[in-house]
Amino acid sequence: MIWSALMALYGTWLLAFWPGILGEDSVSILLEVERGGDFRSGKTVFWYYFVRLFYEGTHRVEVPVGVLLCLCALIFARMLAWYWRQGLKKSFAVVLVLVCVAPHMVYFMGTLYPDGIFAVAASGLLFELWLATRLRTMGAVSLAMVAVTLPFAAFARPNGIVFLLPAVAVLLVLDRSTRWRLAALIATVCAAMFAGHQMHSSRTQEAVYPMVVFETVNFMKPRAMNQLWDQYPHMNDPWVLDTPKVSPATTELLVRYRQLPHFLAYTDPAYWDMLVFHPDGPHVEGLPKADQQTLVREFFRYNLWQNLPDFLGSRVNVFLAAALAQGGFPAVTYSTYVLPRTQAESVFRQFDLRGVERRFIALQKASHAWRWLLWTPWLGLLLLAWALRQGIVRRELSLLIVALPMAVQLVAIFLLSTAGEYRYLLPFFTLPLALLPAFALRHTAPARPVSA
């Protein structure tokens, strides 16, 4: 019944915004499917095969988008039904209203990007692993949900691979029969992914080089105070001004590729995209591999330590820009620019539900105006801090199974993110679905464990 109710809402939304929300990442994956090997989107192999499975035979974008909405509704419904059966009525209401039917959540789930399903699947997987660790066993429904969520959580985005670790760790506490079933499931998923990589190589964006070049160019921005000191060198001791902000090797390498003003003209405090994707920009992804490695080496050898305050300030700025949803999002009408660039046969706004569309847009606009409160992942981050503390202090494995991989995700996003994109923090917005029951039942003893 819960799944049906959610699907009624999600289905109505899809009919109103047919064939779904499409952006530039949608174009990339559709072209990769259509051109079969001649083009790489930078997305994972799993995401490529998922889109290919539901798009290649029909050339209708609404098919994979509809499947994504169905899967998200299924994962949400499973957790909400468990909440209800356990008598967690308040938690049920909170996550239903603030997460499952939140206008921006429906928007991201209905976008042909992996971020929405990744966030939902990660929370669904961690919920099942928390429950399994608490009960020391897994029923058929729980195993089925792991089969649904594990591929999307671990392989839809490159950083999802960390979710394999808690799945394997749970094997240590399960009863023998369940242990073998879960182990077989994990092995099957990993074997399928290995086979997929052999048949279709992936070129996902690496994490370290983008951060290095983004921060290095930021370090090279002119500083008014430094310019004043250059005019009045007697204000400082000579050795203070002799130390360059970045190493000479870094400056020589970049100037050899483009003039320094060209780099500085395309810097943004929260996005590296201008350095890469702007038609007239420096296209730093085109640097030879050897030069990229030199930049990384110089960054960790010299540039980072000479600019540590700038680096930390930049990291906080990018993180808060994402957390407060200060960045941009694909417009609900951007599909009109995407569909003509592909071989899709989808019809924009085929059902012409303008009245329904206007109401959904009004809700989205009102929600966006309060995004600093309604979109931010603060509840998930607070629950994560609680779970980490309780799990470490009380050595509670069920909490650590959820908290540790999410803590790794958080640290990696803070240190390596090169764009203030809200969607990167979406898993922390959905995290309360996995941690609220643990918090609500914190004074309740778990069911008697099954003998392992």
Describe the structure.
The chain has 452 residues and is mainly alpha-helical. The protein has 25 helices and no strands. The chain has helices at residues 2-16, 24-35, 45-55, 62-85, 89-100, 103-109, 115-135, 140-155, 164-169, 176-199, 208-219, 224-231, 238-241, 248-257, 260-265, 273-276, 289-306, 308-323, 335-338, 354-369, 371-374, 378-393, 397-416, 426-430, 432-440. The longest helix is centred in the first third of the chain and has 24 residues, at 62-85. The two termini are 35 Å apart. The model is unreliable at 447-452 (pLDDT under 50).
Topology:
Blueprint: H1 2-16, H2 24-35, H3 45-55, H4 62-85, H5 89-100, H6 103-109, H7 115-135, H8 140-155, H9 164-169, H10 176-199, H11 208-219, H12 224-231, H13 238-241, H14 248-257, H15 260-265, H16 273-276, H17 289-306, H18 308-323, H19 335-338, H20 354-369, H21 371-374, H22 378-393, H23 397-416, H24 426-430, H25 432-440
Helix pairs in contact: 1-4, 2-3, 3-4, 4-5, 4-7, 7-8, 7-23, 7-25, 8-10, 11-17, 18-23, 22-23, 22-25
What is the molecular shape? globular
In the predicted model, the low-confidence regions spanning at least 5 consecutive residues are 447-452
Helical residue percent band: 55-70%
Number of helices: 25
DSSP strand tally: 0
On the 0 to 100 scale, the average pLDDT is 92
Indicate the radius of gyration in whole angstroms.
24 Å
